[in-house]
Amino acid sequence: MTLDLSAYDHPSWFTVVGTGAGYLLILAIMTLVLFGLPWLAFATL
């Protein structure tokens, strides 16, 4: 069985993947800032 991926070889799919990766990166940074930094601040007290 051969999987034909030529239907997904379009610039819009690169935009979808880039947007998703960007949102995940921003979410990870916000999680670290909003939860990691306060936890570190209270852990050092």
Radius of gyration: 19 Å
Average pLDDT metric:
92
Percent in strands: under 5%
Question: Could you estimate the helical fraction of the residues in percent?
Answer: over 70%
Shape: rod-shaped
Residue stretches low in confidence (pLDDT < 50, at least 5 long) are none
Structural class: mainly alpha
Distance between the amino and carboxyl termini: 61 Å
Number of helices: 1
Which sheet architecture does the biggest sheet show?
none
Number of strands: 0
Keywords: Membrane, Transmembrane, Transmembrane helix
Transmembrane segments: 20-42
Q: Can you tag this structure with a few keywords?
A:
single chain, 45 residues, 1 helix, 73% helix, transmembrane, transmembrane helix
Structure in words:
- This protein is mostly helical and 45 residues long.
- It contains one helix and no strands.
What can be said about this structure in brief?
Keywords: Membrane, Transmembrane, Transmembrane helix. By secondary structure, the chain is mainly α.
